[in-house]
Amino acid sequence: MFFSLCVQVQATDADHGENGRVLYRILNGNSNGWFSINNQTGLITRGRRGLDRETSSSHVLEVEAFNSDEGSMRSSVRVIVYVDDANDEVPVFTQQQYNRLGLKETAGVGTSVIVVRATDPDTGDGGAVSYSIVSGADRKFQVDSSTGLVTTVESLDYETKTTYTMNISATDQAPPFHKGFCTVHVTLLNELDEAVAFFSAGYEASLRENIATGTEVVQVQAQSADNLNQLTYRFDPDTSPVALALFRIDSVTGRITVTGLLDREKGDTYTLTVVADDGGPKKDSTVVSITILDENDNSPEFDITSDTSVDVLEDTPMGRKVAVVLARDRDAGLNGLVNFTLVAGNMQDVFKIKTVNHTYGEVFVNALLDRESVDRYLLKVRATDNGSPPRYTDHSLTINILDVNDNAPVIQSQTGYNVSISENVGGGTSVLRVIATDRDIGPNAMLFYYITSGNQDLTFRMDRVTGEMVTRPAPPDRERQEDYHLTVTVEDDGNPPLSVGNH
């Protein structure tokens, strides 16, 4: 079952009075009290604790219907709750403070200053971020609401003001419109000091994850008109510690190289602020944006909610869904798309599996089932991604075929029985034993024996459990009746019962 706000489960009981009164309770899957159930109506609603999609996107509840705590008659059903995303996360900037040191006071209108970036783990509009300057720009700067690029909108004057500290907000696009904040510190250079300047205000590079350490990412370059001192390069100390652990910069050449293991699943973008310094106050900074490209280095993972063992009646019609598995792949793009196949245990293609949204594998009955032929299928379900080469993970699914009463009893002697007894024998004398078998199991194979015709004078009696026929205390009398044509019926205990007769 699936629902967004609430759902009502319902069970019926053919008994009357207190024996027919049905109560409900949640047995498993609700240890944290996320949900509550009305024990009278079966209505399931959210509990007092809030749900968090970012922590758990689904919950599996086992709901039981019962008559009383002491009663043995009960039934259960599984309810799967999928948590829709709510805009409950705040945008977070990659840095609390961004620095653009040494912005030329003669920078023209529209000059790129720095790029700020914030992320929001929510989905849809709740994860879309819009940037704006809250304060500190003095009408000199603006930020692109989509990209986070800060640019100049008016001419700058070092003699009027040398530094700007702006407060920039990132707002997501769904109610209640959460905001995150960062500061951007911009210092201006006096042109009379022949400031150090990077050739580019920003650099971009793309790397595949798992690339070898020592690989060059990009080379930044700056120059100083006076050329008095050797320029040195370093990362700004406010750069993310995670990025500093993965990259290094050569202080002389400005070459940035990889020093750690890049894993896109842990971080797909990094922003490095590089400072160029000639020993004086004439520093400049630039931003290096690094995008980590995905490789197919993760295999699909089956979710704990996937079915591992299910029971199916042998008369289940073809096309009926009997099991569901769930698997996800942490890779991106085609590498993260999952398809499901049955690779073992599916004798004569009795079952088939359908991939839904590259996440769910739904197992259907594809042929007629017969418990008397096969009573259990040990299926191997394979989740395969679309990478090159593809990666896969296998999952074991046991399908137990439950018996239905589809076989009538079979009497061992198909041609009947012919016996002779002496008249006047004592009561309880064994005449014969009828033997029958039934291919079903359980109550469906429990057999009962009856004399259904030919015994009008009640001369014979049959044990309904063993099938043994004996004489009654009044002995048979040949002068009164010299032969009997008895019909014995064997009936199983199924619902409805099946029977067979023999003479």
Please give a structural write-up.
The chain has 1 helix and 40 strands. It has 503 residues and is mainly beta. It folds into 4 domains: 7-82, Cadherins (Immunoglobulin-like, Sandwich); 92-293, Sandwich (Immunoglobulin-like), CATH 2.60.40.60; 301-402, Immunoglobulin-like, CATH 2.60.40.60; 410-502, Cadherins (Immunoglobulin-like, Sandwich), CATH 2.60.40. The strands form 13 sheets. Strands 8-15-14-11 form a 4-stranded mixed beta sheet, with no helix packed on it. Strand 14 and strand 15 (179-189) form a beta hairpin. The protein is elongated.
Compile the SSE list and pairings.
Layout: E1 7-8, E2 23-28, E3 35-37, E4 43-46, E5 58-66, E6 74-82, E7 92-93, E8 97-104, E9 112-115, E10 118-119, E11 129-135, E12 141-143, E13 149-152, E14 163-172, E15 179-189, E16 197-198, E17 202-208, E18 216-219, E19 222-223, E20 232-235, H1 241-246, E21 247-249, E22 255-258, E23 269-277, E24 284-293, E25 301-302, E26 309-313, E27 321-328, E28 338-344, E29 351-356, E30 360-365, E31 376-385, E32 392-402, E33 410-411, E34 430-433, E35 436-437, E36 447-453, E37 460-462, E38 468-471, E39 487-492, E40 499-502
Parallel strand pairs: 8-15, 17-24, 26-32
Antiparallel strand pairs: 1-4, 2-5, 3-4, 5-6, 7-10, 9-13, 11-14, 12-13, 14-15, 16-19, 18-22, 20-23, 21-22, 23-24, 25-27, 27-30, 28-31, 29-30, 31-32, 33-35, 34-38, 36-39, 37-38, 39-40
Keywords:
503 residues; mainly beta; Immunoglobulin-like; 4 domains; four-stranded mixed beta sheet; 1 helix; 40 strands; elongated; signal; transmembrane helix; calcium ion binding; calcium
